[in-house]
Amino acid sequence: MNLFFRRFLNSRNVFPYSILIILVVYLITRLQYFLYYPVLFLSSDSASYCAIAFNILNRNSLLFDIRTPGYPFLLSLVWIFSKSVYTVAIIQSLFTIITSVFFIWVINKTYKSLTLLFAICLSAYISSTYFILLEDYVLTEGIYVSMLILSSAFLILSLKKNKLYSWFLLSVSIGIIVLIRPAGLFLCSVILLILLFFLSNKYKIKYYLALVLPFISIVLILCAYNYITLNSFTISPFGGSNLMGATILFMEPSKDYPQFVNEAIVNTLDSIPRKDISYVKDSYGISKLYHTFNNDFFMQVILTENLMKQDNSLSFVKIQPFIKEISFDAIKKHPGIYAKFVVSNFIFFFANLRTDVDYYEQLKAIYTRTTIDKKYISELASGRWRQVSSGKQDNSAIISFFSDEIEKQKNLDYIKLNKDDIVELKSTVLMILYMIYAKINNIIFRNFLWLLLYFVILIFSFYICLKSRLKSVDAFIPFVFAMMFLSNAVLVSLVEVSLTRYSYTVEFVIFFSLPFLILLLKNFYKKQSI
Questions:
Q1: Residue 394 has pLDDT above 70, yes or no
Q2: Could you tell me the pTM of the whole model?
């Protein structure tokens, strides 16, 4: 039996079987949405991406004051052919399967005996509830996560094959990830580690250039464009608002601020429950701290709105210096509270692996919120600042687009309102099949053991890297993957609330711990026997 298993793993059938596993899981988890429950996936952030996409299509001047250009450019490309949220969901879903297949192809080229196991782990990742839900949203996650998988494939290919073109593609892919979502800057840690690897192994200068130049060029071009159009040399002015959310519960007025800034701070603090402000100052319960910071994080929007209310000439970009000053002053005055924010969110970044949601309940809630209550149209129609752009000129076009998309939702055969006006989904064979699969997936993959396995890989790979003085590629690859998760956890925790929406993007690192452990153990015992 053992001989048969070994022959199977090393046979030519491994790759097709691995792809078959991914395809079957992909179809089980996606077909029901596209055939029966094509719910309109919008959020409060969707309008800001649509605004830039519309301006691209209309050849208007482009400002990247709220969002970076990567995702809006994808939307505009899709909408040239079919201006529909449903089409966007299809493209994003197809991109998932294409990048997943490419990743397994790379594994088959580099670690053939582990191809099947990597395919199982990747299938578990791309079929998690959060993944399949966010894949259909008009949000960056739809392509951001797939780009991370693609970049990871280039990373393995580059380190194993050491071809100049693969290092170039890795660098370009990281640059594109940052264009899609500035949070992708956590991959700078990957670049730094690889540069250290180059230095230790005396790589030629051309490899340094291939790794660094494309990424730096992409980032600098965006920064230069923002300097020309916004008078701000930055990837995105919106980054300051995230830090504002982190410090919103302990910001304070100051005699050094203009009067209108102090008024905005006081008005915003008056909108926050006093018990929340007191709790973060005096208490140390990690779970309660996390949820308190989480509940009030988006009061940053209210502060921004209050600042812009004071003077009609104040745009979002113009208030950024005030936002940054308020945030940094809050951290200087209350470093202990800020430390609580960072620590509680860092811990919950890891704890999110154990959380899950009911897919069908989420579909019902999204349909109710978007189609029945028309929440996002109401937000835009209110005339309040909702992270769309510095001005409100884009609101009417987006309202019209959302209204047309909502109208299409009224003809869905498998989503209906019952006599109590509660959303119901008609049962299908695919629904039953998915429910069985989701239950098995949650039992096997969403538990504490995978986190334990991750830390084993982090420590074990680090130990081998030190012992080999960065000569072991097979130890360096798992270490870089482990550091991807860790560096993302640190970056998010410094400026953001660690929502599952942010942590799931690198969960594939956790699941890949199993095949990487087998790889490390195999090489370790091989060396011990020599």
A1: yes
A2: 0.94
